Amino acid sequence: MIMTNLFQQRWRRANKITSKYFKRLFNDHFLVFLVIGFGGVVLGYRDLLTAPQYAMIWHAPWLVWLVAGWLTLGLQFGSLVTYFKPADALFLMGRDREIATNYLSRALALSLGYASLWQAAAFGSILPILWRMQQMTWARLLVLESFVLIYKWGLLVLERQRLLLTQHRRQLSENLVQRLIVRGLVPMVGIVLVGFLPQRLLIGVGCLMLVVLVALTRYAHLSSKNAQTIAMNWPAAIAQAARHEQRVFQFYATFSEVPNQIKTIKRRRYLDGLMKRLTKQRDVMYRLYLIRLARDTESLPLVLRLTAIGMVLIAALNQAPLWLYPVIAAAVSYLISFQLLPNYFDTQRKLWTRLMPVTPHNRQRAYLTLMGQVLGIVGIGLVLSGLTQGWLPAAVVLFGVLGMRVFLMQVYLPKQLKK
Amino acid sequence: MGLKIDNLTGGYAGNQVLKDVSFQVDDGQIVALIGLNGAGKSTTINHIIGELLPKSGQLTLNGVDLGQAPAAFKAQLAYIPEQPILYDELTLEEHLELMLSAHQLDKAAAWDDVMRLLATFRLDDKLHWLPTHFSKGMRQKVMLVAALMLHAPLLVVDEPFLGLDTLAQRDVIQLMKAHAASGHSVLMTTHLLSSAAEFVDTFVVLANGQVTFVGSPKALAQAHHLSLSNLDDYFDLAPGVVAHDHD
C-alpha cells in the first residue's frame, strides 16, 4: 500500500511539473511552431491526399511497408514510466517485493495508458492514408490497431522485466541487434502481414491476438508469491527512469527553456580539424562556445533536426501560398536562436567562465559571431530547399532568412544576452 | 603591494555574513584563512574572486580596485575552488589553452612550464581526456595546474588538500612555497592548522564573519598556550569561534 501511494505521489508531482512545462510551451514558441509547422504539414498532407498526380501511390505495394514503418516508429514512443530516483536504491532497499508487486504494477498500468495515446496518435495521423489503401476495411483497421497495441503492451512488459532480477535469470539485457529485431523488424513484418492478410482470416487472427493478450496480461501480473523470488535491478531501474526523464525534458527543451537539464557529451573527433580551422584567429570565448556546441548531444542535433524539418517542410509545400515559405524559414531561424540561448547562459554560469578576465561585451560579441555563422549555414540549407520549388520560392525564403537574421542579430539576441 | 581588504561587509542576499573584515596578503606571503564551518571563509573568498558584491568596503589587488576594474583585478588572480569545476565538453589540453588564452599568455612560451606541472601531477599523458574520465582527485589536479601555470600575482586556494593523495598534497605545498618565493602571494583556506603552520606565514582567524586574529602560526599557538604540532586543538579552546551555519 505504501508503495502504491508512493507511486501515486510521484505521479502527481510529475503531473505538476508537466503542467508547468506545458504552460510554458503553449505560451510562446510551441504555438509559433504549431501554427506554422503544423499548418505547413496539414497543407502538404492535403496535397498528398487530393492531388491527382499522387493517385498511383494508393495502389503501390510499397505503401504498406511505409505504413508499417510509420506504425513501428510510433511503437518507439511511450516507454515505461517509473519515476524511480537514484536515492531509491538506498532508501527503498529491502522493499523489492512490494515495489515489484505494487509500485511497478501501477507504473505498468500508467505506462500502457500513455503508450496507447501515442499509438492512437500514430494510427490516427495516417488513418486517411490507410483508408485509401487497397483492401482496407474496418475489420482490418481494428485488427491492425489491436496488433500494434498488444505489441506495445508486450514491449512494456519486457521493459518491466529488465528492471527485475530473478533466480533463473540474473539480468535481461538487450544488444543493438536484438533491439532492432524486437522493436523494429518483428512488429514491421507483423503489421505488413496483417495488411496483406486475406479478409477471411482476419477473425481467426483477431482471436489469436486475444489469446496472446490474455497470456501477456497473466504474465505481467506478479503475485506476492511469485515476487518472493524477485529482486530489483536498481542500477537498471534508475538508469531507465533517468533516460525517460531526459527524453521528456528534451521534448520540452525543443520549445522552452528547461532548467537543470543534464548535459551529455560526445567527443566528435571528426570535427576537431574543422574547429581548429574555425577558431584559429578567433578569441577565447568564441572558441569556448563553438567547442561546447559541437560536443553537446542536445544542441547540435537540435539545430540539425530543426533545419531538416524546415527544409522538408519547404520542399514538401507544393500548392501553398507564397508567404508561407519565408514564414517557415524565419520561424526555423528564430527557433534555432532561441534554442541555443541556454548554451550562452550555461557558459556564463560556469565558474571557469566567470573567472576569465573577459568583459561582458566581448562575451556577447563572440556569441553573436557564432550565432551569425550558425544562422548563415541554416539559411543556406533553407534557400537550397526553396530552390527545389523554383526561383521565386527560393527568393522569398532568402528574404525570410535575411529579415529574421537582421532582427535576431540586431535586436533580439543582443537584448537577451544582456539579461 | 598584494591583496588588501578594507572593512569588507557583505554576504548573500538577505544574509550578511561578513562584518568589517580587514586583512592583507603581501607579496611573497602565504596567508591562511581559518575558521570553523560557517565562519565566513568561503564568503570572503567569493568576494575576492568577484562572485559576490560587497555591501561596503574595498578590495584592491596591486592597486587595482575590484569594484572599479573587475576584469583587470581578475586578470591578476588564479583561483582553485574547493570543488573542481570543469567544462564537460573540453579536453584537459583545451582547458589549459583556454585559460592561457583568456589571460593573454602565449601557448608556445608557456607550454614547457605547463608540461612540467602536468608531469608533477602525473597528468602529462592525459592531455586529450575529457573531464568525465577524471577522478575527483584528478579534476582537482587539473584545477591546480590551470591556476599555477598562470603565475598570477595572487593565488587563491580554497581547501587545497581536499581529495588529493599524499604525494599531490606534498607537491601542492612545494608549489605554493615556490609561488610565494617568486614574489607572488597565496591566500588559502584550511581546517588543518598544524599542517598549515609548517609553511604559512600568517593566519587570519574568522569567527561569525569577523576577523578575530591576524598573526603568525607561532603567535596563534602562544596566545592559546599550544604547540605548533597540536594547533588543531585551537578550535576547542578559543572563545567565540563557534560559528553560525552560513559558509
From TrEMBL, chain A:
Short name of any one Pfam family annotated for the protein: EcsB
Signal sequence residues: none
Gene Ontology, cellular component aspect: membrane
Alphabetical UniProt keywords: Membrane, Transmembrane, Transmembrane helix
KW Transmembrane helix (keyword) present: yes
Segments crossing the lipid bilayer: 21-42, 62-84, 104-131, 137-159, 180-197, 203-220, 299-317, 323-345, 366-385, 391-413
Protein name: ABC transporter permease
From TrEMBL, chain B:
UniProt signal peptide: none
Classification via PANTHER family: ABC TRANSPORTER ATP-BINDING PROTEIN ALBC-RELATED, ABC-TYPE TRANSPORTER ATP-BINDING PROTEIN ECSA
CDD domains cross-referenced by the UniProt entry: ABC_DR_subfamily_A (cd03230)
Source species of the chain: Leuconostoc holzapfelii
Name of the protein in its database record: ABC transporter ATP-binding protein
Pfam families assigned to the protein according to its UniProt record, in alphabetical order: ABC_tran
PROSITE patterns in UniProt: ABC_TRANSPORTER_1 (PS00211), ABC_TRANSPORTER_2 (PS50893)
InterPro entries according to UniProt: AAA+_ATPase, ABC_transporter-like_ATP-bd, ABC_transporter-like_CS, ABC_Transporter_VariousFunc, P-loop_NTPase
An MF annotation (GO) of this entry: ATP hydrolysis activity
UniProt keyword terms in alphabetical order: ATP-binding, Nucleotide-binding, Transport
Domain of life: Bacteria
Gene3D superfamilies in the record: P-loop containing nucleotide triphosphate hydrolases
Domain ABC transporter residues, every copy: 3-233
